[in-house]
Amino acid sequence: MGQGVLEINDSGLRVFVGMDEVLESPGVAVIEHQQILVGTAALMRARSHPTRVNNQFWRRLSLESLKSENVRCRHHADLAYCHLHEISEHCDLPDEVMLAVPGNFTREQLALLLGIIKESPINAVGMVDAATACIGNLAPRGAHLHIELQLHQTLVSRVAVHEQAVLDIAETVNDAGTLNFLDAWARVFTDAFIMQCRFDPLYSAEAEQQLYDMMPQWVSRAMRQGEVMAELDDRTAKVSLRQLQDASTPILSRVRAMIENLGESNSVVFVSHRWAEIPGGAQLAERIHLLPHNCVAQAVAKRWGEIHSETAALRMVNALSAAPANEVAVQVNAAAEAAATHLLFGHRALAAQQPLFVFWHEDKFSVTPTPPDHPAATITSHAGKLALRVDAGTRLMLNGEEIAAPVNLSAGDRIGVADFDDVITAISVEQYGA
After folding, report:
1. Residues 292 and 398 placed together within one structural domain of the fold
2. Are both 346 and 321 inside the same structural domain?
3. Rounded Cα gap, residues 289 and 139, in angstroms
4. Does one domain contain both 290 and 377?
5. Radius of gyration, alpha carbons of the chain
6. What pTM did the predictor assign?
7. Which of 268, 271, 303, 273 is nearest to 286 (CA)?
8. Per-residue pLDDT tens digits for 212-235
9. Are 322 and 24 in contact (CB under 8 A)?
10. N or C: fewer beta carbons within 10 Å in the chain?
């Protein structure tokens, strides 16, 4: 099946054939006496069998002994092998596979990974740092950051881009991963069910599993509509986007602190597609660019010859040729002097303390605080900034340029639709005391 990529990230190992993602499998295992479930099957049983779960085996990849009665589970490396073998059984692997690896893996972990790969059905022909590949394929000259969301932590990589893109440093923000966000949101939904329905979703392991299974859908709906009516066991509770943003803020603040520590004045912060699913994820930094979901596959395809190894002994590639400066065209949400506080449409200025929705219907373009059936975009306020999130499949213009990625709004920004004269203008309204 040609060439492809295996991205190692415990939030979800992903297999690409060419530019197409064919499988995503979370780094979770449920260890039973006679079998080991991994990936999605394990995730769907993780909350109902908490004492049998291991979701650390990629993060702590090693030969460290595990206490288990299952003879196939001696250490974390055994679980990683089981995971890779499961992946090979659930999709047609490419004939040649590049490994895209996070920059926080140690030399010992990389060596162990290659040993596991050698025993698996995967034909690995090269190994590259995922952040270096993505940034080198897109970024202008300078030092830039790549922000990846893992299962238990966030990985912040700084890549220096000149004639080559070179990994400079990779730092982790602990307790700032996918599971930490899920746990924070679970507290919000649990409190809502208790207060509004006198129902505790955590009363049993089975109910807790249902809660965690449904949460990604609920959060996605809240990000589109400003709120969500969550349904569980014939009970309904309302949760607002602002509540989810507030729950996410302590985690996001730690990530922002690392970004500020490692970034430079001209740094662009490249965030993985996973941040688009996090309330407030579009506001991690002032100068931000949301990467497409298949960014690593695009980057590896363009640098295949540089990464490909002619020998069976693969080396970690963390320096690649950078994209020519005259070919770089990255949409960046740049900082502005005045942050927007309101949206002006016609003669109305709408304060954005609560979510606002951009929509058009039957040639009518407008903005409203009432969630429409099919919003074109949602504007939310968080940490004193307005963020514009465009719904999938929507073609919206910002200052005359088509946008798809989430952006922060600055005073003077104009939101519109191609071939429409009406525009929505972001403005800053100053308050003066007596």
Report:
1. no
2. no
3. 10
4. no
5. 23
6. 0.81
7. 268
8. 999 999 998 888 788 899 999 899
9. no
10. C
